[in-house]
Amino acid sequence: MSNYTKSTNFASKDNLTSGDPLKIVKGTEINTEFDNISTAVATKADLASPTFTGTVNVAAITASSTITGALTGNVTGNLTGAVTGSLAGGTGLPLTTGVTGTLPVANGGTGAATLTGYGAVVMNSAGTAATSVAPSTSGNLLTSNGTSWTSAAPPSSGVTSAVAGNGITVSGATGAVTISQDFYTGSSSTNTSFPISSYLFAIGTSTPTLRNASSALYYSTTSPQGNGVYQFGSANGVALSGTWRTRGVNGFLYCCTTGIYLMQRTA
Amino acid sequence: MATQIGNVTFGQISNVRKSSDEEGVYFADIEISEAEGFPMETHIYCARDNDYAPTGKWVYKQIVEGNIVGTITQLAEGVNPVTGQPYPPQPQTTGSQDL
What we know:
- The structure holds 2 protein chains of 2 kinds.
- By secondary structure, chain A is mostly beta strands.
- Helix content of chain A is 6%, strand content 20%.
- Chain A has one helix spanning 27-42; strands at 120-122, 131-133, 141-144, 149-152, 168-170, 179-181, 199-204, 214-215, 217-219, 230-232, 238-239, 244-253, 258-265.
């Protein structure tokens, strides 16, 4: 690229005297000037659709129409001026390296510059930044107090543990718990240990035995009741574990001195 | 001090008598409330070392560890552990059956 530089000073020829050989305008001088003009014009950009090579320095740009084509090179300088127009068709802006600042809630962001790791993101009053609730103690739940959220222990209401009761067995305290009713499943005629709530028929020799009264219970090993007959009162035998209560009487033997009682283990 | 095993609340264990004809068997007077809200009453309790129920296991453990009122007495043969008296003569029956 070059600029036009005049080779011959034609104006100085006017001051020369007649007969001076330099006063003559030669065709070669004019030709040289046109050659210089041709070279300079050929290396300048056209006003219409110019194509630039190398670095273009522009003091100000006013585009009166669409700027087309791809800007494939890097822009290493800063865009420090205000952009009052919109980048409506812009795509491919990298969010990790292409933006700075905090995206507000109103624009779909959280409005928060930082959030706690492993925290639960919760929103606050309209338009304000989101915050995070740290997990805190294991087993905690995200709990509302009516206006905000906290990490709090679950409420104690409801079933939090299972314990065994009278005649009831549980397989564990929490989680998947199996609750089963205890009952004797054996076949031993000499068994002395029955689960609580078990019922047995027994001969009672006290007359009458109060309903629901407690008594030690035996199974007989000798006459007169015979082996395996449950009994209480004065009869001898092998005692059964626990406390037994009479739950009713079916009838009396031996002329009202002995009854057939329904007995239940209660403790 | 009361202790709750399942639904049963136990109070003092007293008047412990060791069986005369079985090992690992004790009779005792025990304060018991058999369910929540039931009054505490004293009952005869037979404690065995092989009891099936958790309550029986607990009572037996208290006895052998000495958590009782008084001392353990030995029942004489032929004495009713309930009444502390010798067994009265039994009425005669016409036969006996194994059930």
